[in-house]
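Journal club side-thread
Mid-discussion, someone asked how the predicted structure for our own chain would compare to the paper's figures. Pasting it here so we can look after the session.
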Amino acid sequence: MDILFMIVSAVFTIGFLVFIHEGGHYLAARAFGVRVTEFMLGLPGPSIGFTKAGTRFGVTAVPLGGYAKVCGMECDPIDENIQPVLNCVYRSGSITLDEVAQRCNIDQEDAQNALDQLVEWGSVIAPTRKDTQEVYRTPAVQPTRKQRRQAARLCALAPAVQPMGAPRIVDSAEALFKRELSQQYRNLPFWKRSVILLAGIAANLIFAIVAFILIYSVIGFDVSHPDTGEIVHVIVSPDKAITAGFTYIGMTIQAILGLFNPATAAQTVSNSTSIVGIAVMSADYFAAGVAEALFFMAIISVSLGLMNLLPIPPLDGGRFVVEVFQKISRRQVSTRVMGYLSLVGMTLFIGLFVIMLNQDVQRFIFGNW
């Protein structure tokens, strides 16, 4: 039962904080009109969930981590055949790769490249693994509540539900392309792309500050009187709680900066913990009560947010550095280069994870938490 409680506590903590983080990305993207096709808790893979307003929300088979699939984040130039291919798919509704190539008078490789980009944009649905015919389809469209209210105010018919794979009326191939492009991350100005990238980090830090306010200004905490030793329950003003929150954030920033100092890097890694340590500590904090559990989630939220700020792809901070480089140099970083940078970053993090996992296993075995 203790191990089960530990697992449940860890999964809840990580799942909730990842939800907060990815929710920041999702809300920022949708506020700027960018399409988000998936919002998942867990690693990519088989999932269960529901679709609303063009986004599939759900939980995957491995409920650790999570992601929000913001469309149009690829770095390669827009494919030269994307407009006629998009027009072809929408007029047909459902169409194979061979048919796209024939109708657009291009070879299969060019058709495949254009379709891959449209799939990444969320403009076209890719074939399933079981689909031997390689059929590409138009996405389903469900009128939003706002669209229905607007239609009701104008005494007009609400937009019809359009099932996946249904042909669409296309008055202008250029207008269709511009409409789809307008919903892509890549179409936004630099400052809006930056907001989307940093919104997850901001969401984690905001949650931590709110948690500190709840702990210190609403729930309160017990302290021992320095003279009498009497336990006194204290509630402080919100401004002092906010100060405490920012003080902890500053301490965490200093600890993370220690990773880049050769004199303190080893000690910083030694003081860090992996998923095993988080699981063990989460069980202890959750067993201690609501305030302690909330405090633990706040400090993990700060760590999650600030670690994502590190300038290493594929972290948010790494992607932000790439955006800054592209803005200053006016040069586009290719998807291939981004792939190499992400591979280096992932290799580094896997190495750190293995070191911290080894530390935590030894701590768990010998009880040296």
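Post-session note: The mean pLDDT is 87.
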